[in-house]
Write a structure and sequence with these properties.
Layout: H1 4-16, H2 32-47, H3 49-54, H4 57-73
C-alpha cells in the first residue's frame, strides 16, 4: 500500500497533466435526497482542514459552483440554508 506521501506525489503529477483541465460533461440521475446529502458532503469536505491543504482555491470555487448548480436543478435552493439533515 502506498504511503500518504506517495499518494500525494501521484495526485500532484496527475493534476499537472494538461488533460486534467479539459472540461467533461457528466449526466447524473439522483434523487433529491441524495443531492441534498451530496451537497452537505461537498460543503463539509471543502471546509475541512485536510481539503484546504491540497485543493487549490480556484478548484474550491468551481466545486462550490457545481454544488450550487445541482441544488438549483433539483429545486432545492430553499433547503440549502437549513440545518444539516439528520437521517
Amino acid at each position: 500500500m502506498l504511503s500518504n506521501k506517495e499518494v500525494g506525489k501521484v495526485y500532484e503529477n496527475m493534476l499537472k497533466s494538461s488533460w486534467m483541465k479539459m472540461e467533461v460533461k457528466v449526466v447524473l440521475k439522483l434523487s433529491r435526497r441524495d443531492i441534498l446529502f451530496l451537497n452537505q458532503v461537498i460543503e463539509k469536505g471543502l471546509a475541512s482542514e485536510e481539503a484546504k491543504q491540497f485543493i487549490p482555491a480556484e478548484a474550491v470555487g468551481s466545486i462550490r459552483e457545481l454544488a450550487g448548480e445541482i441544488m438549483v436543478k433539483a429545486e432545492l435552493t430553499d433547503i440549502k440554508d437549513t440545518p444539516d439533515p439528520k437521517v
